[in-house]
Amino acid sequence: MITVQNISKSFGEVQAVKDVSLVAEDGQITALLGANGAGKTTSMRMIYALITPETGVVTVDGINSTENPIAARGRMGVLPDARGIYKRLTARENMAYFGRLQGMSEADIKTRSEELIARLGMEKFADRQTDGFSQGQRVKVAIARAIIHDPQNILLDEPTNGLDVMSTRAIRAFLRDEKARGKCILFSSHVMQEVSAVCDVITVVDAGIIRATGTEQELLAMTDENNLEDAFVNLVTQGEVK
Ligand SMILES: Nc1ncnc2c1ncn2[C@@H]1O[C@H](COP(=O)(O)OP(=O)(O)OP(=O)(O)O)[C@@H](O)[C@H]1O
């Protein structure tokens, strides 16, 4: 479970994130939904303890991630916006390398790699060097590598960006399975269809500020709209001259 209380971050004049709060529960898929530049990546980077918030607190399974970033990171598997897999290594070697960094035994790495290769449909390319992999293949390797240690909390920054329908579906199905296993899943997206398809709770962020949080039905009721896209536009244009 991840709790975020009033985190903020500026870059010079730009207030990228302002007083963002949210709770991502176990056994649920939570979305951070926002347009380009809304502050999703900056929020995610603070949540996974890559950058330190200027204000506020993040806890991961009760661990304060500023005070104890190493313990907090150990409870998370992160698919960052820059996927950066090792090109000279095969998919399986990328996974094994991360498993060793997480202190796993070689036997556990082998078993878990086999499981993830099967569940993510990576059999055909698991033993090829990743140089030249398609976007979908790279994302699958990056997800498998991030969660090799079977963390309780799974954080993904725009996981299906640039993927075709089959790869998108495979990743959605995988996330639903992880949710059924009781995992806490938090992902950022700007794609309404994506969020609508898999998320239990949606937090709408705009210009670094949380505009609303709720289920899709709750957001529709709040805005008196009948689809998520219109509800989103309604929420982010509130207070603006239309
Ligand atoms: N390292 C940085 N230096 C300066 N400005 C930054 C930096 N990182 C983010 N910003 C600014 O902070 C704001 C929020 O950016 P962020 O990347 O968090 O948005 P986002 O919601 O992830 O957008 P996108 O969907 O386009 O990736 C933007 O105005 C961006 O230009």
Automatic annotation (TrEMBL):
InterPro entries: AAA+_ATPase, ABC_transporter-like_ATP-bd, ABC_transporter-like_CS, ABC_transporter_ATP-binding, P-loop_NTPase. SUPFAM superfamilies: P-loop containing nucleoside triphosphate hydrolases (SSF52540). Keywords: ATP-binding, Nodulation, Nucleotide-binding, Transport. GO terms for molecular function: ATP binding; ATP hydrolysis activity. Transmembrane segments: none annotated. Residues 2-232 form the ABC transporter domain. Belongs to the ABC transporter superfamily. PANTHER family: ABC TRANSPORTER ATP-BINDING PROTEIN, ABC TRANSPORTER ATP-BINDING PROTEIN NATA. This is Sodium transport system ATP-binding protein.
